[in-house]
Amino acid sequence: MDDLARARRFRPGPRLVSLLVGGTAAILVLYPIVFLIQASLSVGDPQARPPEAYGLDNFADLPRYGHIFANTVIVAVAATVMAIALGFLMGWILSRTNVPGRGVLEQLMALPYYVTPLMGALAWSLLGSPSGGFVNQLWRAVGGDGHLIDVTTPYGIAWVMALFEGSVAFVMIGAVMKSMDPALEEASQVLGAGRLRTMLRITLPLVLPGVLGATIFVFAEMLGSFSAALVLGLPSRFFVVTTAMYQLVSQYPPQFPRAAAMGVSLFVVMFAMVYVYRRIVRAGSYATITGKAFRARAMDVGGLRWPLLAVSVVYLAIAVVLPVLTLLYASVQRLATVFPRADNFTLANYQTALSLDAVRTALWGSLLLGLGTASIGVLLMGFLAWMIYRSRLPGAGTIEYLLMFPQAVPRLVFAFGMLWAWLIFPIPIYGTLWLLLIAYLTVFMPLGLRTIAGVMLQIDRSLEESAQMCGASWGYRMRTVTMPLLRPGLIAAWLLLFIASVRELGASILLMGPKAKVITPTIVESWFSTSTELTAAMALLQTLAVGVALALLFTVARRAAQHPGE
Amino acid sequence: MSDHEPTSITRRQLLQAGALLAAAPLLGPARPAAAQTPAKSTKVLDFQTGADVAKAEQEGEVVYYGHDGEAGIAALLDGFRKDFPKIKTNYVRLQTGALYAKLTAERSANRFGVDVLQLSDISPAIDFQKKGGYEQYVSPEHSAYKPAYQSTPGGFFTWAGVTFAGIGYNRTKVKPEQAPKAWKDILSPAYKDGISAKLSTSGMQHMQWYTLRKLYGADFWQEFAKQKPKGFDSRAQLFDRLAKGDDRVCALAEYAGYTLFKEKGAEIEFVAPADGLPATPALIGVVNRAPHPEAAKLFVDWALSNRGQAVYQTQTILLYGSVRTDAPPMATGKKLSDFKLLFPADWSDFQASHAAFVKEWNALMGL
Amino acid sequence: MSATPPPAAVRTASIEVRDLVVRYGQVVAVRRVTFSVAAGEHVTLLGPSGCGKTTTLRAIAGLEQPASGEIRIDGTPVFSSSPRIQVPPERRGLSMVFQSYAIWPHMTVFDNVAYGLRVRKMAEPAIAERVQWALDLVQLGSLGTRSASKLSGGQQQRVALARAFVFQPAVLLFDEPLSNLDAKLRAEMRLEIKELQRRLGITSVYVTHDLEEALAISDRIIVMRDGVIEQIGTPSQIYDLPRNTFVADFVGSANLIRGRRRPDLEQDGRIVLETPGGAIVHGTAHGRRLGDDALFSVRTVHLRLARERPAAPVNVWPATVRRRVFQGDFTQYHVEWDGRPLVVRQVATDPVGEGDAVYLTVDPRRCVLLED
After folding, report:
1. Which of B89, C54, C101, C106 has the most CB atoms within 10 Å of its CB?
2. What HEC string does A55-84 produce?
3. Cβ(A127)–Cβ(A136) below 8 Å
4. Which residues contact A566 (CB under 8 A, 6 or more apart)?
C-alpha cells in the first residue's frame, strides 16, 4: 500500500507547471497587445507615449481605407484558394498515389518553404514585370508585343503569395491525407468508382476538416503577408493592409494609432477564424490515429502517374528552380537583363555582400536566434499544445485563443507593441538578442502550436493514459511516451520555427539593436537602398548559409543518434 | 577655413529662384557659431575637435543611429574607424520616421544608448531639439558652416550634407526630343502610367511637393495626379525600375541614385531643370546622455570635417553634397554649388505643411 | 492466490464507490453510482454504449475528475468531493488495459512491458526476469525484442495485458479490452483473462458491452444504463433473475409476457398472470413487489417445444411455428402463441417444421417476475 500512502501527499505537479507556462505564454502575447490597444485608442499627439487622450477616432477613421481592406481581402482570398488547391493537389499526389519518385519528391516539397516570400517576390518581379521582366523580354525578343505576364496585378501578387507563403498548406493537408485509412478509398474503387470520382467523393470529404483547418491558417497568413505586396504591389499602386500600415508607421510623424487600429480591427477576423477552427477540431473528425496502426498505402493511378509526376515537377520548377536560377542569374549582373552584354557580368555583388560587416554579424545572429527560437519554441509550444489539447485543465481554451493573437496582427505592427512593452520592462533585455528571442517566440506561437497540435491531435490519448496507469509521473511519461511519439512532429516544428526565425522580417526591423542584428532586414534594406542584384546575392547567401547550417546540424544529430552516448 | 565664394553664388541663385534660401526665419539672426566654441580645441589628424581624443578612445565605441542604407552607413563608419581604429562603431538604421519613433520610445523609457543621430528630415530634428534630446555641442568645425546650415542656436544639429533631385528618364524608352527639360514636362501625357515618384514617407518628396508648389501653384500636383504616378519607398527602387524600363520617367530622381546607376551602365539620363532642384539636408548631432560622450563629439567633428565630408561626397553609395564653405567637388567632379538648389523660404511654414502634404500625396498615390 | 514464480506477495485491494457523479459540461454521464468490489473480486460493468460504464471505470482510474461522491481504494479515499481529494492516477496503485491497446509503437515488446517496472525503479536483472514471466503468462515469451508496432491485434492485446499486470498492481482495470478483436480470438482471450485473473488473484473491474464476455469472466456483474446501476449480481443471478425489462432484454434474449394478476389461481408461492389473449402463465416472484399488472421474463432457451402435449400440470399451451432458423449450436424458432410472436431457442434434437402446430411449455421457476 506504499503507493496509496504516497498518494495522500497531494502534489500540485503538472497543474502548477501548466498554469505557470500557460500564464507566461499568455503574458508574452498579451503584454504587447495591451500597448497596441492603448495606442489604437490614442487620439492626441500620435507620437506621445503614453497617449495624451483616448477615443475611438482611429476606428471611426478606418472606413476611409475601405479600398485597402477590399484589396487585402481579394488578394488573400485568391492566394488562399490557389495555395489550398495546390496544397491539396500536391498532397494527394504525393501521399495517396503511386507517382514515380514519391519519396524524393516529398523531400523536395519542403524546398519552397526555404525560398522566402521576399526571395520569391524578388525573383518573380524579375521574371514578370511588364517591361523589364525576363519572361516578357523573351516574349518581345521572339516577336511578341507588350507583355506576356504581369505579376504586379492583384492576381499576380496572389500567385506569388500562394507559391511562397502557402507552401505550409501542403504540409498540413499532406499530414491529414497520410493518416487516412486507405481502405476507405479502396472501398470506393471496389464499388466501381473511377479514380477521379474516388478523389472527389471520398478523399475530399474525408480530409475536409483538415483542409478547412489549413485554409483558415493559410488565410490568416495571407492577411498578414507583407513581402509580396510590398515588392509587387507598389508598381501597380496596389496597397494591402500590411503595406498601408508600413507606410503609416514609417512616415514622420509615424501614425501609430491609426496603424494600431487597423491591426486591432483584424483581431475580430482572427477571433472568428479560431472559433471556426476549434469547432472543426472539436467535431472530432480530426482524430485519425488510434492504437491501431495501418500502413498508408498508395492508390494505383495507372497511366495517370506520368501526368501527375509532370505536375509535381512543374510545381517544383515554378516554386523553387525558376526563382533561384533567376536570382542567381541576376546576382552576377550589374543590371539584370535577359540578354546582358559581356561586360555586364560581375561578381561585385557577392564581394560587396560578403564584405559587409553587418551581413556577417547579422547572419551569425540569425542562425543563433534560429537555433534558440526553434529549440526553446519546440519545448514551450509542445508543452502548450499538450496543455491545450490534452490536459483538460481549466482555462486551456482561453489560452488557445490568446496565443492565436499574433497570427492576426501583421508582425510589423505587433513589433511596436513589443517595442513599447519591453522597453519599460525592468530587466534590461532591450536591444539584445534576448529581446528578439522573446519576440520570435511570441510571434511564432501560432505557427509552432498549429504544427505540433496537428501531430498531437492524431495521437490517441490512451497512449499517455496507459503510461499514467503504469504509475509514471507526469515528467516521466512526457519524457518516455509523449515526447518520443511526437518526435517526427517536433522535428518538423523545429525546422519550421528555425526557418521562420531566420527569415523573420516584420518584428526584427524594429527590435534590432546596435549589438543585436539579424539578416533578413538587412536584405530588405539592401533592396530599398541599393539594388535588386545585390539583394539577390545576399538572399542567395542567406539561403546557402541556412542550408549549410541545417545540413551540419542534421549530420551531427544523426551521428549522435547512431552512437548514443549513454 | 575661410568663407569661400561658391556658396554665395548658390545663395544668389536660390534667391532668384524665388524660394528664399535655407532658413533665416528658422535659424534666426544667427549668432556666429564660433562664439560658442568651447575653449578647448585640439587638432587631431588634420581637423579640430573639442573632444578629448584619449578619453574617446578609452570609451572605445560610438553608437550611430541613421537613416541611410546599410551599405551607406557602413561606408561612413568604415571611414571613421580607419581614422580611429581604437573606437568600435555600432549602428541602428531605419527610415527616419520609424527611427525617430524608436529613439523617442527608448528615451521615454529612460534608455539611452545613442551617441550620434543623423536624420534626413528637418521636422523630427527640430522636434528632438525642442524635447532637449540633443547635446549642445559646438564643433570647432562649425566655423566652416554658415549659420544657415546649423540649428538655431548652433550646436544641436548641423547639415552633414545635402541631397537633391531632378528628373530622370530611360534613354531607350523616351526619345531625346521627347525628353523632359523643365518641371512642367513631368505633366506631359506622354508619360502617363510610366512615371514614378516617392511615397509620402519621404522627406525629399515633401520638399519637392512644397518647393514646386510654391513655384507653380497648388494645381501643379493635381495635374500630376492625372499621370497615375507610381510611388516607391526608396531611390534605389526608383532607379532600378527606371534602368529596367519599367518606368519611363522618374519625377523625383535623386542625383546620388542617378550616379550610382549610371555607374552600373544603366541607360538613364538626369535632367536638372533650370528652375532649380529641390534639396534636403541630412542633419547630424550629438545626443545627450550619450553612453560615449567624447567619442560622440569626436565623431561629429570628424563627420563635419573635410575628412568626413570627403566620405559623404565621394562614396557613391552616399553622395551627399557638402555645404562646407571650402568643400571640394563630389565624386562626379561637380560641386554642390554647381547646382541650383531649391529650399523652403520659410522653414516653419514648410514644417507646418507636412500634414497637408501627406494627405494630398497619399491620395495621389492611391493609398 | 496462486501466482507462480515472482517474489512479492500478491497485493489486492477493495474498491468502494459511493454516490459517484461525473459530468461533461452540462451532460451528466454518471448519476450517483454506488457499489463496491471486494479484494480479489472480478467485477464487470456491463451496459450499452453511453451508459456510463467506461466513465465510471475512468473515474476509478483517476482519468476523469468526478463532480461529487467518493472513491476508496482499500479504504483510503482517492477521490472525495468533501474533503477535496483527487489522487492522480499514477499514485492510485492501479493498472489498466485499454480498448485501443495503447501499445507504444516506438518501443519493443520488452520495453512496453518493462515500463511499469522501470517507473518503480526496479533493477534491470529483476526487470528482465519479471517481464519474461509476464510474457510467458500471455504466451508471448519469444517476442520480447520485436518492435511493438509489428504485432498483430491479438498480440498487441496480450502485450497490453502483460504490461498491465507485470508490476502487480493492487487493482486491474479493463476498458473493453477485447472489442477490437475478432470473435474467435475474443473467445480465446476471454478464457485467458479469466485464467490470469484467477492465478494472480488481483481485484479487477472490467468494462464491456458484450454479455457473453461478462458472464464468462465475472464474479459479479453490474448492469448500467444512462448513468445509473440497473442491477448488481452474480452472472447467474443477472441471467436468471433479471430485475427489469432493460436487464432482461440486454442480458441475453428474453421474451416478455405481460398480464393481469390472478391471485385466485396462486398457490405454492407462485404468481399467476392472465395475458390479454387469455393464456394463464405461472411464474415466480423471487420476493419482488407486485401490483395488479405484472411482467414475466422468459429466456428463449427455457421455453420448450414439443409435438406431443407434455405432462406438466401448468404452463402448457398450444402454439404454431412460423419460422425456423438453423444457427448451428441451436435452432431458433419464431412461434405464434397467444396471438403474439415468441422466440424459442432449442438444441435441435427433434426438429419441428415451419407451420407445425406444437405445444409450448416452460418451468414456472423460469418465468421471472420483473420489477417494472
Report:
1. C101
2. CCHHHHCHHHHHHHHHHHHHHHHHHHHHHH
3. no
4. none
Residue C90 has pLDDT above 70, yes or no: yes
Which amino acid appears at position B233 of this protein? D
Nearest-Cα residue of chain A relative to residue C102:
A463
**Is residue A7 within 8 Å of C85, Cβ to Cβ?**
no
State the nearest Cα–Cα gap between C233 and chain A, in angstroms: 28
Compute the 3-state secondary structure of chain C and give helix, strand, coil in percent, each to the nearest 5.
25, 35, 40
Contact A252 B121 (CB under 8 A): yes
- A251 DSSP assignment: S
Chain A residues near residue C173 by CB distance under 8 angstroms: 469
Helix axes A256-282, A411-423, angle to 10 degrees: 110
- Taking only the tens place, the pLDDT of each residue in A96-122 is 788 888 888 887 887 777 778 888 898
The answer to whether residues A529 and B71 touch, using CB atoms and an 8 Å cutoff, is yes
Cite the DSSP H helix spans in A56-199: 57-60, 66-96, 102-108, 111-114, 117-128, 134-141, 154-164, 167-178, 182-190, 195-198
C224 pairs with which residues across the strands?
C229
Chains A and C are touching, with contact defined as 3 or more CB–CB pairs separated by less than 8 Å: yes
Q: Which chains touch A (3 or more CB pairs under 8 A)?
A: B, C
What is the distance in angstroms between the CA of the first residue and the CA of the last residue of chain A? 34
Ramachandran region, residue B217 (left: φ > 0; alpha: ψ -120 to 50; beta: rest): left
- Which residues face C257 on adjacent strands? C296
Residues of C in Cβ contact (< 8 Å) with A484:
104, 106
The angle subtended at Cα A503 by Cα A320 and Cα A83, nearest 5°, is 50
Q: From the CB coordinates, do chains C and B have 3 or more pairs under 8 Å? A: no
Count of CB atoms situated within 10 Å of the CB of C150: 13
Cα R_g (chain B), whole angstroms: 20
The mean of the pLDDT values for chain A is: 80
Angle between helices A483-502 and A167-178 (to 10 degrees): 170
User: Is pLDDT of C227 > 50?
Assistant: yes
Is the CB of A465 less than 8 angstroms away from the CB of C96? Answer: yes
Instruction: Give me the helix-helix angle, B70-83 and B306-314, nearest 10°.
Output: 150
Q: Which of B191, B211, B97 is nearest to A254 (CA)?
A: B97
> Do the chains contact at C102 and A463, CB–CB below 8 Å?
yes
Contacts of A236 in chain B (CB under 8 A): 230
| Range from A475-479, B255-259, C173-177 carrying the lowest mean pLDDT | A475-479
Q: Which of A15, A294, A392, A470 has the highest number of chain C CBs within 10 A, making it the mutation to test binding with C?
A: A470
